[in-house]
Backbone:
């Protein structure tokens, strides 16, 4: 009986946390809003300066 | 006068990008990545292909996501580009390059999930009459160019509602970039190419930004965008100078290339006389122009080849073109022959081929060379103030 109660408590707790949004989820979402585009153009076969 | 400041080095790109690895990094290139020349002489084909493969390997090592195919890339041949694509899983894309049957030659676009966001990258090449005829000529009719606006629009309709950010890599020049940015709905960023512009401050075509990162891998563009609804962006062009450390892995890859071309063009260990023991071509001019030749020996032109030797670049055609005399011209320095008597920037580099002048005392082709000849090598990217400081520069070689 006690075991059932513990599982039920855990289930309700997790559901409650998911519904309000975990703090870790929020910070991941914040990081996920940024992208960095690194771009190059007209490299034309140059790997390094000649001299 | 600002000379000798040479930016670049793909090994710096890898180092610089490390700081962005966990920041939703997307790496792209707008084309003309692998080659500079409209024609590749047969003698340079092998090194040009090795160089192209080296760059492909370096870009893969760095984590490239998409590369547009430029007209100068096509000079290497579509079969070779497809070979590189297959061998290295290289992400060439083009939405409007098609074969004789109208089928797309490369992938039309790629998508990448970055953090929680879907980024689409597509690419087009320009359809001016100049570009379309050039593509047809370069590929012997194996490729043609479709309307870039229709090609981009068609992909964006397919992707509608599925992506959070759209990057279009173009190879057509900035004027045309404004057209595609304004006329095709849904583009967030145009990364341009072909006209070698440097845009530290992006152009803003309503909601679309237009950028380009100069040429010869001297700068890397970095655009940081917040996809929080505002699409706030910060852009910078990073010069690859000595403040950025060289990545050892990429440095080693380039060194290996230098060794390979030395093996191919350097005679495979065949003994050659020391450069100091070789009578340079200039000695033919000396009997009548002793004073001028004496002055020449004191100039940087007389030591141009040694600067390549010091960096193990003396077999790289990209470098030899400006550090030898009449590179790949009739009876000039050639990759196959590697004539030491024709190294350095000797009299004929500026005054023209002197064969008839020497044999029959006919006038030298170019007694007073124009500065236009000088800036073929002393380009704005290598010597930013060359034209401005012309008087001071010419004083150094006055003879």
Residues:
């Amino acid at each position: 009986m006690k075991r059932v109660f513990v599982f039920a408590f855990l289930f309700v707790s997790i559901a409650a946390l998911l519904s309000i949004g975990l703090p870790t989820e929020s910070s991941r979402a914040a990081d996920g809003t940024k992208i960095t585009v690194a771009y190059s153009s007209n490299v034309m076969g140059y790997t390094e300066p000649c001299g | 006068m600002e000379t000798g400041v040479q930016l670049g080095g793909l090994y710096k790109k890898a180092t610089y990008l490390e700081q962005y690895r966990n920041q939703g990094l997307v790496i792209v290139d707008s084309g003309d990545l692998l080659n500079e020349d409209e024609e590749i002489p047969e003698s340079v084909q092998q090194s040009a292909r090795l160089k192209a493969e080296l760059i492909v390997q370096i870009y893969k090592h760095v984590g490239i996501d998409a590369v547009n195919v430029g007209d100068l890339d096509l000079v290497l041949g579509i079969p070779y580009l497809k070979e590189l694509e297959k061998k290295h899983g290289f992400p060439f894309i083009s939405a409007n390059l098609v074969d004789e049957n109208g089928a797309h030659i490369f992938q039309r676009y790629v998508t990448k999930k970055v953090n929680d966001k879907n980024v689409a990258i597509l690419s087009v090449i320009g359809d001016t009459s100049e570009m379309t005829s050039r593509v047809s000529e370069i590929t012997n009719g194996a490729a043609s160019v479709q309307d870039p606006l229709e090609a981009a629009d068609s992909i964006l309709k397919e992707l509608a509602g599925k992506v959070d950010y759209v990057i279009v890599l173009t190879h057509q020049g900035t004027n045309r970039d404004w057209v595609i940015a304004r006329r095709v709905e849904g583009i967030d960023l145009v990364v341009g190419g072909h006209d070698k512009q440097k845009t530290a401050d992006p152009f803003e075509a309503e909601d679309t930004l237009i950028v380009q990162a100069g040429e010869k891998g001297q700068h890397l563009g970095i655009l940081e965008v917040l996809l929080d609804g505002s699409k706030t962006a910060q852009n910078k062009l990073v010069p690859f100078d000595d403040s950025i450390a060289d990545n050892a892995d990429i440095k080693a890859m380039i060194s290996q290339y230098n060794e390979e071309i030395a093996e191919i063009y350097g005679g495979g260990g065949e003994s050659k006389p020391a450069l100091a023991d070789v009578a340079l071509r200039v000695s033919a001019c000396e009997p009548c122009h002793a004073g001028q030749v004496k002055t020449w020996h004191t100039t940087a032109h007389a030591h141009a080849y040694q600067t390549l030797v010091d960096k193990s670049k003396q077999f790289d055609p990209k470098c030899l073109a400006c550090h030898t005399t009449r590179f790949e011209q009739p009876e000039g320095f050639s990759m196959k022959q590697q004539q030491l008597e024709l190294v350095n920037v000797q009299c004929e580099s500026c005054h023209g081929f002197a064969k008839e002048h020497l044999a029959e005392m006919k006038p030298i082709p170019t007694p007073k060379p124009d500065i236009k000849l000088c800036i073929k090598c002393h380009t704005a990217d290598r010597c930013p103030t060359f034209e401005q400081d012309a008087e001071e520069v010419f004083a150094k070689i006055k003879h």
Q: What stands out?
A: The domain at 10-239 of chain B is CATH 3.60.21.10 (Purple Acid Phosphatase; chain A, domain 2).
